[in-house]
Amino acid sequence: MIIHDKFKYVFRALLGILFLFSATAKLIGIDAFEIYLFSFGWFSLGTAFLLARLVIVAEYVLGLLLLTNFYPRLAFWGSLAMLAGFSLFLTVLAVKGNHDNCNCFGELVNLNPVQSLFKNLGMLAVLLLSVGVKPFRFRRKGLWLALIILIPLATVFIVSPPDNWRYDSYARHELVNEPAFREAVDQSILPHSVVEGDHIVCLYSLKCRFCKMSAEKIMTLRARGEFPQSPIIAIFGRGDDPDPAPFLEETGLQADEIHFIEPGDFLRITNGAFPVILVMHGDTIAETFNYRNLH
Question: Model-level pTM?
Answer without folding.
Answer: 0.78
